[in-house]
Amino acid sequence: MLRVTRKISVNVPKSSSFCNECTCWGWARTMVVKRLKSQECHQRNYSIPSGDVKSLRSIITPPISKIRNIGIMAHIDAGKTTTTERMLYYSGYTRALGDVDDGDTVTDFMVQERERGITIQSAAVTFDWKGYRINLIDTPGHVDFTLEVERSLRVLDGAVAVFDASAGVEAQTLTVWRQADKHHIPRICFLNKMDKNGASFTYAVDSIKQKLKTKPLLLQLPIGEAKTFKGLVDVVTKEQIIWNPTSSLDDGKVFEQKPLTETDDPELLKEVKDARNALIEQVADLDDEFAELVLGDFSENFDLLPADKIQSAVRRVTLAQKAAPVFCGSALKNKGVQPLLDAIAMYLPAPNERFYDFLQWYKDDLCALAFKVLHDKQRGPLVFIRIYSGTVKPQSAIYNINKNCTERMSRLLLPFADQQIEIPSLMAGNIALVVGLKQSATGDTIVSSKASAMAAAHRAGREVGRKHGSKSELESLLLAGVEVPEPVFFCTIEPPSMAKQSALDNALNCLQREDPSLKVKIDPDTGQTILCGMGELHIDIIHDRIKREHGIETYLGPLQVAYRETILNSVQATATLDKTIGDKRHFVTTELGVRPWVGETSSTTPIIEYADNFMDPVQKDLEEAIENGINSSYLQGPLLGFPLQDVAVTLYSMTMHSDTSLPMISACVSRCMQKALKKANKQMLEPLMNLEITVCDDHLSAVLGDLAQRRGSIQEIQTRQDNKVVLAAVPLAEMMGYSTALRSLTSGSATFTLELASYQAMNDQEQSALLQKRTGSG
Ligand SMILES: Nc1nc2c(ncn2[C@@H]2O[C@H](COP(=O)(O)OP(=O)(O)OP(=O)(O)O)[C@@H](O)[C@H]2O)c(=O)[nH]1
């Protein structure tokens, strides 16, 4: 693993507001000390005194008010990884950047991590900055994974949106920004790549204003742009921060911070003063307490307004999501990341400043959400959890509400920077990595015991006036909701050779635990493995991950819609099976009926009933054999072999020879049920999707016209700021390739989410066309 030698500087002055001196964990400082090259003694140095592996073991849990659980949201290539690496470096936990002494980089370390079967950035990484514990949580890159995005947003308390300053708001950021709006997550903006040709602070800020419909609060102004970018001015304190003004060392740890004066740059000073006044007016408009202060004591001269008053007011409006503070820099050129870290601590919320309604039900009992499962080659599944209330301890039992099981966690780790540190306990507000949980999967809710879950359920029941102890009470305590959407697409997946089949099975098992919306089954006729997923992209990514993470090149069959089948009338059938195997005669005859079942919700498992005169009691093993027979027929409908929905089965009679084996009974029941189903009036059901499209006015009519051609029915058109939100129901079969179609209809400006609403009956014409296409008969 990573070597523990760390490069630190000595004699760091304490006075600066950007100094990270106060990150004192009382570590034994047993590390190797190297002096930085060409260090100028009059300049401030912001490298952190950091510990080695041993000292990291003594890290303490900070108070909850000092924890920041944040995500970094960015369009592809905006600089999320570079910014994260700089954060780890400046906070003192990696020795990567331009470590010219021995050429060791974070990338090397990442490769090592990958070889061990895990990457630090796959879920969360923890580090400390000036006494704050920062947990950076990965937000999934692909927003088509609605479930994943929602889950990761659920564990964030705040977010940093990173932009390419030459491109402004790009599509991916726009989409995640909207999701964050939905989940009420406070955000700050970082205009990265200020050094790049074409970088424009004004353009990027305008684009935030226009496209994100938020109020940007300019807390910094850049000094120079593109090639001339060398630092920034803090608008609140009017201090300029210039990186590396004289030193040849260019890792960004050294910078100069001093008040901007008339002699430095009169024009820039005027700009900063104007920006400060504008900021004060803007914040006063959004915050009554600040408005009172401004209008009272400082109405004549904003210059006298203390910086901390402005900062507190900016924090309040950020937490209330009335505006988003804007910072700038160049992660690649090592400029602006330390002030960004300060901003995270200063302006984003602590866990106890967020409202979670379920906390009142758990009080001080443990309540945590498993938000990611990783498979470590050595240690097995590692489960990332966010603790909302209570304390987690290793070697203790936990109860998983989703799986209705008790599990034991063997070890508790903190994903601290580039290492995983074993810890004795962890409290509410934190992110932890748990070893030893065999069943828990992404999205599961974890509490201390079943009794604790029931107690919370009762409290919740009282709150919402439900009947105590009901199943739905317990379900209401599931943090990520109970709904794992039904996969609606499927395709076959094949390994390159039969020898790789078991490796593929293993890879699919691992992926399923991480991603509950992925289902895998075996085609009963062909024996082929079938992947069932939520969308085209979902299946694509799974395919790619099997290759990248498990080294197996697989072949996918064509993508198909997961239809279902049902029946429209009641029918009865009888079947007999009579076979002699060896000296034993297996004889069984049965009579059963199938009928349409109407319930409150649709049923994808058979409803099985026994007629009064059916043998009483039915032996347990016989009952199992009968149910096995029914279940196997239920998975293969009579029209195209899709699973059945909403069918009830009644067993009327059964006679058998005493030597008849249970598998023969199952086979006879299955055959009888298939006979009955064939006789019934059959109906194909197709997945109907709830579609939500966010589109600007200009493209609305094109989008609506296209939906009409896709058999879509518009349910509502809402207005969200300057955008329209179209809510529609559309058959999934019409949605193949929709992301490409929508992109070309709207020049990439619209976004959409798609989720299963229900299965609906196809009309005669569509059904005939489908049967004709699949079987050649209508
Ligand atoms: N000029 C310039 N380039 C940068 C800056 N930050 C990142 N880059 C470059 O932009 C490219 C993408 O950077 P990453 O940090 O990988 O961006 P990302 O957002 O993590 O990218 P994905 O993981 O692909 O989404 C790389 O070539 C970086 O070197 C910057 O501040 N200035």
Automatic annotation (TrEMBL):
It comes from Pelusios castaneus (West African mud turtle). Gene3D superfamilies: 3.30.230.10, 3.30.70.240, Elongation Factor G (Translational Gtpase), domain 3, P-loop containing nucleotide triphosphate hydrolases, Translation factors. It holds the Pfam family EFG_III. The lineage of its organism: Eukaryota, Metazoa, Chordata, Craniata, Vertebrata. The keyword Nucleotide-binding applies. It is found in: Mitochondrion. Keywords: GTP-binding, Hydrolase, Mitochondrion, Nucleotide-binding, Protein biosynthesis. GO terms for molecular function: GTP binding; GTPase activity. GO terms for cellular component: mitochondrial matrix. GTP binds at residues 74-81, 138-142, 192-195. This is Ribosome-releasing factor 2, mitochondrial. Mitochondrial GTPase that mediates the disassembly of ribosomes from messenger RNA at the termination of mitochondrial protein biosynthesis. Acts in collaboration with MRRF. GTP hydrolysis follows the ribosome disassembly and probably occurs on the ribosome large subunit. Not involved in the GTP-dependent ribosomal translocation step during translation elongation. It catalyses: GTP + H2O = GDP + phosphate + H(+). It comes from the Eukaryota. InterPro entries: EF-G-like_DII, EFG2, EFG_II, EFG_III, EFG_III/V, EFG_V, EFG_V-like, G_TR_CS. CDD domains: EF-G, EFG_III, EFG_mtEFG_C, mtEFG2_II_like, mtEFG2_like_IV. Residues 65-352 form the Tr-type G domain.
